[in-house]
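On to my pick:
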Amino acid sequence: MDEATLQALARRAQAGEPEAFAELYRHFYRRVFGLCRRLLGSAQAAEDAGAEVFLRVQRAMSSFDTRLSFSGWLLSIASHYCLDQLRDRRVEQRVFDSRAPVWTEPATPAPSPLTGLLAAERSRAVRAALQTLPERTRLVVVLRYHGEFSYDQIAAALGLNRNHVATLLWRAKKELRRSLLALSREPKP
């Protein structure tokens, strides 16, 4: 869907047309879900977050400036919501001293079992390496590579300057390379 069509849908949704908002939901749910899943670490948490994000978007539609990118605005709301959830988890963990749950990814269809196994192993390794990054750095990486935000959009969403975003991404890539190299050298059971 091109930007002009999205802007027209956003204006119709602002005017209170439920069909327009439903179309925006259908178009963006997978992106919002994917962003939330990568930030929160589980599909279940991402489903809950996705539902809450779209409720917030629906309530805030009247404040959307149609001169801006709708997708940027929407993904910014999603990333801020996920950050709030991560902060709440940290506080809860300190208060209750609970262990973080282990999340498993659902199996995805693959051309062959070996290809599927190798892809799943690579995916787990990348997710594990990504989880070792500091929260803000992980958020920048996810926004850039999953949310497809530009450096300027990330800077605006997180209240950073563009150079700080570039530095965080450079450090994150360096750390991810180091972590993945270390994981690949570990002896297999």
User: Anything to note?
Assistant: Residues 55 and 113 are 39 Å apart (CA to CA). Helices lie at 3-14, 18-40, 43-60, 70-96, 113-131, 135-145, 151-158, 162-185. The radius of gyration is 18 Å. The chain has two domains: 1-99, 111-189.
